[in-house]
Amino acid sequence: MPVTVPNGGTGQVSFPAHTVLLGEGTSAIGNAGPGAVGYVLTGQGAGADPIFSQIVAGSNMTITNTGNGVITFASTGGGGGGDITFNGDSGTATSNAGQVNIFGNSTQGVSTSGDAMETLTITVADASTTQKGVLELATNAETLLGASTILAVTPDDLNVKLGTQTQYGVAIGGGPTAALQYTGTGSAGQILQSGGNSANPTYSTATYPSTAGAVGNILVSDGTNFVSSASTFGALLIFESNNFNPNDSTIYYLNGSGWSVSNVAQGRHYMPRNGTITGLIGYMTSIAGSSENATLYIRVNDTTDYTVSNTLDFSLPFNNINASLSISLSQGDYFKIKFLSPAWVTNPTQASLNCTINII
After folding, report:
1. How far is CA 236 from the centre of its chain?
2. Are the C-beta atoms of residues 109 and 133 closer than 8 Å to each other?
């Protein structure tokens, strides 16, 4: 009588040779097999006993039972040990003896490495001004800051830095970490006026004339706008003569820096435009002679003399000259400085002239 499982037995009298015993709870122990050569015990889930099953070779595979419990699996090609073809963006690569080499390109910023754990690492370099590779996009705030040398700026970021543009407006710097600002369009003829170092420039209501006007005109403010006007700004001509010893009742001309009785072209001063001589200010000095008066002229075109002073007293060591004049000259006219000595009782010596002529 077999002993039941609850009483510590198997519930069976005997088991077939080469079978595998199976627990059946409190029921008698069951068995599976014996399996055929090369079969393996396969589970059937919690509701069924395991069974011996055949291993079926898939595509491109062979299964060999070499005995002594050894089963050999081998690939015959395709997805196994045969050739494998990789299709790339450009061209293909086919395995050779089951191997495919993966190489990086330093020019493109890609490198590869492997280790004993059968891990292949593909590394892409960071991009720079001299190296292709991967990079990070800048945020709007990083673009405004403008400090990074590795972040890439997108059109959206650039738009933030450029600011809200006004058509026909003028860009105004907002500082190194701020967006550009823009003026309004302004009215035709207005000018842009600085606001100093604490305010943006703005268009001024003052306008320029639409045409330049006559040759030689300049821009003059009329209190509201700028207008084209004939020049009222002139020139100051400075004369400094050498010393000379004047003779009695003699006409002298200032030719360059020296006095001469010869009326030569060297002493001419030509007018490049229309103008008016409005004054001569200066002085004449000498080693004192007698008090007879000498006369100083401005001579125009060698035809007309204009008296500057006829009271030059060379008994004095210093003669101030401050003459208001109104001598109109046309473009191409010329003038020179003329000196007429009196008949002195005692002639002065080492006389000289230093003066400035104002022309507007």
Report:
1. 45
2. yes
Gap between the Cα atoms of 254 and 242, Å rounded: 9
CA distance 318 to 320: 7
What predicted TM-score, i.e. pTM, was given to this entire model?
A: 0.41
280, amino acid identity: L
Cα 6 from Cα 26, distance rounded (Å)? 6
Strand 190-193, strand 181-182: pairing? unpaired
Q: Which one, of 358, 355, 319, lies nearest residue 241 by Cα?
A: 355
Q: What is the greatest pairwise CA distance in the chain?
A: 182
d(CA 172, CA 101): 57
Residues of the chain with pLDDT under 70: 3, 5, 8, 11, 67, 69, 76-91, 95-100, 103-104, 116-118, 231-233
- Return the residue matching tokens 């003699």: 250
| Domains defined along the chain, listed by start | 127-185 (no CATH), 235-359 (2.60.120)
Number of H helices, E strands in the chain: 2, 26
